[in-house]
Every structure is written in structure tokens, then in C-alpha cells.
Amino acid sequence: MSSDETTTAAGAGAQDSPFRHEQTARDEAPQFVLPLVVRIERNEPPARTDALETAARAVLVLLSDERSLGEDESEGEWARAVRDWQDSRIRKVVRRARGAEWRRAEALPGITVTGKSAEVRVFPPIPLDGWPKDLARLQVSGTDLDEPEPPADADTAAPVLWLSPSLDMSAGKAMAQAGHGAQLAWWELSDEDRTAWREAGFPLAVRTARPAQWERLITSELPLVRDAGFTEIAPGLTVAVEGVDRVHALPRREH
């Protein structure tokens, strides 16, 4: 299954954090979820790593979209939903679509982000029990994807989201984890560095760490994603976010 209800951790964190296992005031707030839909056509499925990276960028594109920003009279149409979502537990759910299902999903308010072979549409957060009909009917299971060729070494000029080598996750579950990692990276940045990353096109890589490398990463005070273990895997660390400090030096993308 790729549905994802997680807690995550970035360093010590605040006492009332969305990224802690134990009960906090955030659990008393209305709970929201960020829907993502990956396009998986029967004859042309995307490559797994590309789907993970595209999902991570989709989260960043939504967080930086003008419709998600602002407050009070100046806020965008999605800003309140994004704020309410981030004030509660951080949840992301990945579903799959093809053909007419995908076309119906694209007709709903959201943003489609395209990778080399993957297409992922991200939608503004919704209440846990408030799924639009055309998204609610989409399948959560069946997001297993292949890797036609081994991914190239990660470009260390940009942030790298390192997956734990001990976990066996469906592509949908891993996409949600990559999205969490990208969100932690976003929260680490100043407004200036967020702009730099956005103007560069949100370059990033998602790779699986080697066992010895993973042990080093999780003891290096990096932002870490910790899954609550509600679906597929036991509670524990899933993603280490490396290289957030490199975004200010990224070359700007030509428009």
C-alpha cells in the first residue's frame, strides 16, 4: 500500500511538532492529507526512481506556488488548507491513475509535475475524510514500479534524499517518503534559498543509501524522516536529507 500517515523528525524539533510519535496538541487539530496521483499507464509505466524524484518535486512545487502562500486578505486560494495541513500531522497519500482516471484527476485543481518518464499531480490538502469522488475511487495499491536501468550516481551539487537500505517499500510508499524529505528540506531553508531552489527547477536526487553510509547519515544531525508505521513498514527512520545547504549555489534555470 502507498497510503502514508507518518511522523518525521528534523534534529531536536519543537515540543509541539508534527514530527513526533507521541500525542501532542497537533492531534487535537483537524487532520488533513496531501493527495498525490502518479500516472501509471499499463504499457508505459514510469521508472521507479524518476517517480520518486518527481513526487518530491511536486511537493515543493505546491509549497512554493503563489496559491499556497500569504495570509489574511493577501493569501492564495490554497494557503489556508496548506497552513491547516502543516499545523496538524503531516500526511501524504499516493494513488495511481491511468487513461480516463488520469484525465479526471487532471481536471481537478492541482499541479502536474513531469519528470523524465513520470507524471505526478499534486493537489491542495484536503480533510482526511474529504476526498473528492474522482480521487477517492483511485487505487492506493498497485504502485510497484521497475527500474529499467540502474540510476546514475546522485548529483551532489543538489540535495539528495537518501532512503534507508533496510526497507522494502512499494513505489507509492517511497514516493510519499521522498515527499516528506523534500518538505523537511524546504523547511530548513531561508526565503532567499527557497527562491534559489525554485528558480533552479528544484533539482534533487532520491537514492538508496549503502548500509554503512546510512549509519553515518542518521548520526550526522541531518533532517530525518521517521515513519509512524501505519502502513507497509514498522515505525522508524526512512529518509535522510543531505545537502540542503547547497541550494544557494545552484545555477538558475533558463525560462
The biggest sheet, with number of strands, parallel, antiparallel or mixed sense and barrel status, is: 6 strands, mixed
Low-confidence stretches: 1-8, 10-22
Task: Give the CA-CA distance, first to last residue.
Answer: 38 Å
Backbone CA Rg: 17 Å
Instruction: Give the overall pLDDT as a whole number.
Output: 88
Helix content: 25-40%
Structural class: alpha+beta
Strand content: 15-25%
What is the molecular shape? globular
Number of strands: 11
Number of helical segments with 4 or more residues: 7
Task: Describe the structure in your own words.
- The protein has 255 residues and is an alpha+beta fold.
- α1 runs parallel beside α5.
- The chain is globular, with a radius of gyration of 17 Å.
- It starts with a strand and ends in a 13-residue tail after the last strand.
- The N terminus is likely disordered.
Descriptive tags:
alpha+beta, 11 strands, 255 residues, six-stranded mixed sheet
In short:
28% of the residues lie in helices and 20% in strands. It is of the alpha+beta class.
Topology:
Blueprint: E1 3-5, E2 9-10, E3 32-39, H1 48-64, H2 79-87, E4 91-97, H3 99-106, E5 111-114, E6 119-122, E7 126-127, H4 133-136, E8 160-163, H5 171-188, H6 191-199, E9 205-208, H7 211-217, E10 223-227, E11 236-242
Parallel strand pairs: 3-4, 8-9
Antiparallel strand pairs: 1-4, 2-10, 3-6, 3-7, 5-6, 8-11, 10-11
Helix pairs in contact: 1-5
